[in-house]
Design a protein that fits this description.
This protein is mainly beta and 192 residues long. It has strands at residues 2-3, 15-18, 21-35, 39-55, 61-62, 75-79, 83-84, 97-100, 106-107, 120-122, 129-130, 142-145, 165-168, 186-189. The radius of gyration is 17 Å and the shape is globular. It starts with a strand and ends with a strand.
């Protein structure tokens, strides 16, 4: 287990790269946290991390709230066959850049909830489960998704007051799915 507290008082430590085991705890004044393919679990990190890079495989489990509430977090790059769990990045008020690579398997409820700085999000085609309200109350202006959930309503009742453009590649678009999206100017719909 690598607990962030192990790096307390390391004022000049700017990057931590972890290649095995479990990661948890409080990281202070950290510019970048890199989680490699040998890591099996990331659990409820806290502190002042600015950038997160996760290069996982099917063994890696991000737990609910893994990065939730890290106010200094500006960017996240996630790759590998990984599930983004519920509330994973919720309440990250400065999160402005998220790159999800092909291989991501699912996105849980509230995964990007209350992320006002996040303006664009592309959900990769590899996602097979897209849970309801995954971007509720975010600053999203442009969204690209492979589908809108099993019933076509994963955005239903989401607070998306800034949403301007949505691209839905396939699947159902349920009734009232864009209700309350007053700034929406464009919806692109795929062939299927």
């Amino acid at each position: 287990v690598f607990d962030g507290g192990m790096a307390d008082d390391c004022k000049n430590l700017k990057t931590v790269e972890i290649q095995a085991g479990k990661v948890k705890g409080w990281f202070d004044n950290l510019d970048t946290l890199k989680v490699g393919p040998g890591v099996c679990e990331v659990d409820n990190l806290n502190g002042s991390i600015k950038h997160v890079v996760v290069e996982g495989d099917s063994q890696l489990k991000l737990l609910s709230n893994a990065f939730s509430g890290i106010e200094d977090l500006e960017s996240a790059k996630i790759s590998g066959k990984i599930a983004i769990p519920q509330y994973c990045f919720s309440n990250c008020s400065n999160l402005s850049s998220v790159i999800l690579s092909d291989g991501i398997t699912s996105v849980g409820t509230g995964a990007f909830k209350e992320t006002p700085a996040l303006k664009e999000l592309v959900i990769p085609d590899s996602v097979k489960t897209l849970s309801s309200l995954f971007i509720d109350d975010s600053g999203i202006e442009k969204l690209t998704v492979p589908f809108l959930g099993e019933d076509g309503r994963c955005l239903w009742h989401a607070q998306l007051s800034n949403l301007k453009q949505v691209t839905v590649k396939s699947g159902k678009i349920g009734a009232e799915v864009f209700e309350g999206c007053k700034k929406k100017k464009k919806v692109e719909i795929g062939d299927s």
